Amino acid sequence: MHTFSRRIPSVVQAGSCRASFHTTVSRSSAKLIDGKAIGATIQAEIKVGVEKLKAEHGVVPGLAVVLVGARKDSQAYVGMKKKACKKAGFLSLETTLPEDASQEELVKVIDAYGADPKCHGILVQLPLPDHIDEEFVLDRISVEKDVDGFHTLNVGRLHKKGKTPPTSIACTPFGCVELLQRSGVEIAGKNAVVVGRSNIVGMPVARLLQDLNATVTVCHSRTADLPAMVKQADIVVAAIGRAEMIVAEWIKPGAVVIDVGINAVDDASAKKGYKLVGDVAFDQVKEVASQITPVPGGVGPMTIAMLLQNTLSRAQASVE
Amino acid sequence: MHTFSRRIPSVVQAGSCRASFHTTVSRSSAKLIDGKAIGATIQAEIKVGVEKLKAEHGVVPGLAVVLVGARKDSQAYVGMKKKACKKAGFLSLETTLPEDASQEELVKVIDAYGADPKCHGILVQLPLPDHIDEEFVLDRISVEKDVDGFHTLNVGRLHKKGKTPPTSIACTPFGCVELLQRSGVEIAGKNAVVVGRSNIVGMPVARLLQDLNATVTVCHSRTADLPAMVKQADIVVAAIGRAEMIVAEWIKPGAVVIDVGINAVDDASAKKGYKLVGDVAFDQVKEVASQITPVPGGVGPMTIAMLLQNTLSRAQASVE
Predict the structure, then answer these.
(1) Which site among B198, B216, B235 would you substitute to test the A interface, given the most A Cβ atoms closer than 10 Å to its Cβ?
(2) Is the pLDDT of residue B22 over 70?
(3) Is A73 a catalytic site residue?
(4) A chain contacts of residue B162, beta-carbon cutoff 8 Å
(5) Boundary (domain end) residue, out of A129, A150, A171
(6) Which of residues 144-203 of B touch A (CB under 8 A)?
(7) In a domain? residue B63
(8) Percent of chain A having pLDDT more than 90?
(9) Contact B35/B302 with Cβ under 8 angstroms?
(10) Does B229 contact chain A (CB < 8 Å)?
(11) Residues of chain B positioned with their CB less than 8 A from the CB of A151
(12) Packing angle between helix B299-318 and helix B171-182, nearest 10 degrees?
C-alpha cells in the first residue's frame, strides 16, 4: 500500500530567510519550485516501477479514462492523461460517451472496467453533464480502482486515523505535498494556511499537511481577516480560483507558497488572447517568499504525475 | 434527514466583551454554558418527537448497545445510555459479551441488530478488547444504523460537501456545536481553534465548525506555539485529555470556551479520592472568557442527548 512519503526535511528551512515588517532586508527572490521538473522525476521513477512490475509479475498498469460529452477542456485533460500513460508504459484505456448518455450507460462502462483485470485505475473525467449524479458515479467506482481518491470511503479513510489508509489520495493535494517534500520544506510544527475548502483540493491538502504535523488553518470566503491569517503562515496553499488574489503584503517573509489556481485572464499580447495565472500574484510574492510554485509549471504537472503514481500503486497492490 | 441545526445567532456575540491585553477592564466572569440544562431541553424535545413518531407511524425508536467485556467505565456509560433511552421512551436493547468473545460472535450480534426492524441505532461501546479489530467492527454496522457516526462512509460524508450528508454525526462534536448554537454564539466568520485532532472529537468538530463558516485551526502536540494560537480564537474547543492544560493567559478576552476533556485528578477531600476536571483551568479561564462549559456538566450530558437525537433521526428516516 503506497501512501504519500514522509520524507525527513533536509536543507531548506521554511522561514529561514525573514525580514521584519518594519525594516528593509535585502534578499534575493524566492527559489522556484519547479513542478515540471519534479513531475518529470516522479514520472521517471514510475517508469522504473512499471518495468519492475512487468518483469516480476507480468503486470502492466492499466488506467481507464471515461469521458462523457465533448467539453474542450475535458478533452484536453484526457488527452494529456493518455499521453502521460503511454509515456510511462501504462496500458491506456478510454471510453467516450456522448453528452446525452444516460447514467445507466456510464455505470455499465464503470462496471466493465471494474471487472477488467487489465484495468487498475478508473478515472471519470469531471465535470459530468447535469443529468448525471456525480456522487453516485464516483462511489460506483470500486474503491480498489479509485485512482482519483474521490470515493467516499477514501475520503473517510483520509480524514480519520485508522488501520486502513485510502487506496489513493486525490492527485492535486497529493501533488502539493510531494512538491513540498521534494523541495526540502519542513512541514512538522509549521503553520500552514490553506485558502479554499473544496472537496478536491482544500480539504484533502489540509488533512495531508496536518497528518505531517503542520498546524493547519483552512480559510475561505467567510474568513474575517484573510490577509492577517495568510500572513501567519510558514506554508501557504492557495486554492480559491481567483486570479492573483494573494499579494505580497499578505505573505510572511520566507514563507513557502504553493499556488493551485489556474485562471485565464485576458492578454492581448498572447497568441490565444489570454494567459494563465495562479491565485497568487507571482511577480510580487516571489520577492517575499522563500520558495514558490509558478503557474503554469507548478502544481499542474504534479496532478498527472500523482495520477500515474496512484495507478501504479493500485497495480502493485493487485499482485500483493 | 436530520443534520445539525444551523440556527441564526441571536443575543450574545462572541467577543463582544473584550479587554485589551494591556489595560484592565472590569468585567464579570463568564456565562456558564450549562450542558446539563441544554441536554435536558434536547431530551424533552426528543420525547415530543418520539411521541409524534409513535402516534403517526406506530414506530418506537430502538437503540441497541453492545458491550464486550466488563470494564467499569464502559459499564457505567452503557448504564447511562440505557437509562436515558428509557426516559426518552425508546426501546432499549442490550447485548453484553464476555471479554474473550470472538470477533465473529460480535459481528453476529451486530448483524442481528442490523436485521431487526425494531432497532434503529447500533452502538458498540468502545474501547473493544485488543483481539478485536475496531475499524472492521464499526464499519460492519449498517450505515443506516450508525448512530455514533464512526462508520467510514459517514466520516467521508462529513468531510466532503456532497449530496448525501452523514446519517449521523459523532455525538460529542455534534453536542459541542449544539452547545454553541443554543447559547447564541456566532460561529460564521469567527476564528475557532480546536486543540486535539482525534477521530472522535477534534477532527469532526473542526469540520462542523468550518461547515458553519468559522475559520478553523486544528492544534496538536506538534503545534509550535500553542498559547499564541489559542489566544487568537473567538471559539476554543479543548479536546486533548490533559487536566487543566489551557490557562487564562492563553485565552482571548471574551472568547467562548468548550471543554471536552474529562480528567480524573487526585483530591483527598473528595469521597472517591479524586475529582473530574476538564482540559481547561476553569476557575481562572472563566474570568477571561465570555462563555464557558463546566466539567462535569458541560459537554458530557450533550453526548448522550445527541446519541438519542441520532437514534430518533434514524427512526424517523426509517418511515420516510
Answers:
(1) B216
(2) no
(3) no
(4) 135, 152, 199
(5) A150
(6) 151-164, 188-191, 197, 199, 203
(7) yes
(8) 91
(9) yes
(10) yes
(11) 156
(12) 110
Residue B206 placed within a domain: yes
* Assigned domain for B31 exists: no
User: Does B105 share its domain with B199?
Assistant: no
CB B230 within 8 A of CB B256: no
Same domain, residue pair A220 and A274: yes
Query: Which residue in the set A161, A207, A216 is minimally distant from B199, CB to CB?
Result: A161
Q: Is residue A95 part of a domain?
A: yes
Domain span holding position A287: 183-300
- A146 and A192 share a domain? no
- Count: domains in chain B: 2
CB pairs under 8 A between A and B: 97
A100 is catalytic: no
In CATH, what number is assigned to the domain containing residue A224?
3.40.50.720
The reply to whether residue A215 touches residue B203, judged by beta carbons under 8 angstroms, is no
Q: Are strands A91-97 and A62-68 parallel, antiparallel or unpaired?
A: parallel
Confirm if A203 and A219 have CB atoms less than 8 A apart.
no
Contact between A300 and A262 (Cβ < 8 Å): yes
- Are A145 and A189 found together in one domain? no
pLDDT digits (tens, 9 = 90+) for B57-77: 999 999 999 999 999 999 999
Q: Which residue of A has its CA nearest to B133?
A: A163
Are residue A292 and residue A198 in the same domain, yes or no? yes
- Of A152, A162, A188, nearest to B135 by CB-CB distance is A162
Same domain, B197 and B131: no
For residue B58, CA distances in Å to A43, A51, A142, B48, B116 come to 62, 64, 39, 14, 16
Is some CB atom of chain B closer than 8 A to the CB atom of A220? yes
To the query of whether residue A133 is one of the catalytic residues in this protein, the response is no
- Cα B102 to Cα B112: distance, rounded to the nearest angstrom: 16
Query: CATH number of the domain that B121 lies in?
Result: 3.40.50.10860
Count of Cβ atoms closer than 10 Å to residue A71 Cβ = 15
Q: B194 and B127, same structural domain?
A: no
Q: How confident is the model at residue A83 (pLDDT cuts 50, 70, 90)?
A: very high
CA dist., res. A109 & res. A127, Å (int):
17
Condensed to tens digits (0 to 9), the pLDDT of residues A267-309 reads 999 999 999 999 999 999 999 999 999 999 999 999 999 999 9
Mutation for A interface: B191, B215, B226, most A CBs within 10 A: B215
